[in-house]
UniProtKB/TrEMBL annotation:
InterPro entries hit by this protein: Peptidase_M42, Peptidase_M42_aminopept, Peptidase_M42_dom2
Keywords: Aminopeptidase, Hydrolase, Metal-binding, Protease
Protein name listed in UniProt: M20/M25/M40 family metallo-hydrolase
Family: Belongs to the peptidase M42 family.
Pfam family, one: Peptidase_M42
Amino acid sequence: MFNDLEILCAAPGVSGDEGGAAEAAERLLSPLGEVTRTPLSSVLCRMKPARAGLPHVMLTAHLDSIGMMVTRITDKGFVKAAPCGGLDRRSLSGARVTVHATGEGRETLPGVILATPPHLSDGKSIPPKADRLVVDIGMSAETARRKLNYGDRITLDGPLTPLLGDRVAAASLDDRAGCAAVIGAAKLLRECAAAEISVALVSQEEVGSAGAATAAYALAPDFAFAVDVSFGSTPDDRPEDCAEIGKGPMIGFAPILDRALSRRLTETAQKHGIPYQTEIIGSRTGTDADFIAVSRGGVRTGLLSIPLRFMHTAGEIAALCDLEQTARLLAKTIEEGLS
């Protein structure tokens, strides 16, 4: 699981420019079946040929990550940027980033988001709004304008780093952790005779779920299981809003989710001794599940979420055991049959 996650986290894939992440996903999925890429850069893998009478199940997670895009280059060579997805501006001042330039040389350029030293502030200043970020790439305006184009993506620097125990930190665990868990489940289901399996690692979740909506329409599954991340507990949280890292995936219960599937996940976890937690959501889930469920005439959809600390920062933290148990729970649920 760690090796797949490392490959996925190393690939750039800010929303709307997921090419690098899509290439990594294709390499990991190609041993499992026929792999195609959609016009929106979602990666689809049909693991088994259709067989009459078997339910078609789609396993999905999103490839894209939050980031920024270049909006202007000032006369002093600074790069102004706008967010792609919900950046946490509190964590951005002084953060190291990489600009994926598409101009002359098509280079990856290191940079730092501007930060006012406390000595020069009045002590009351707040972080700049996310749409007013400025990045220093150490270049003159003339050089920067040759190398960069408007719309070039900017990623937060945060390679996958092992922590103590089985914890890992990275800038894009949302949702490369989900992608790794889905790939892990697909590997466990190679010989599954209970369903036709498709995998969809989709684009643009952070900016509206266009990838999930179009992938679900293209695949037309009978059932779908979306894997995303949700809030892992920290010392300053409200316990009712979060789950414990290392204690298993969160099984979602929400109006848009199929209650029978949520119960089936719970029963399967109990039967096989798989640790799990529950997540009760009274409205929209805020994930691709909302869009998959209403594709075509409707898709019976379940949701598993991996507990994640420090979401939408360069230092997201998850537990590898939660990814592994997510994969195991998906595989066992599907192997035992859906109807």
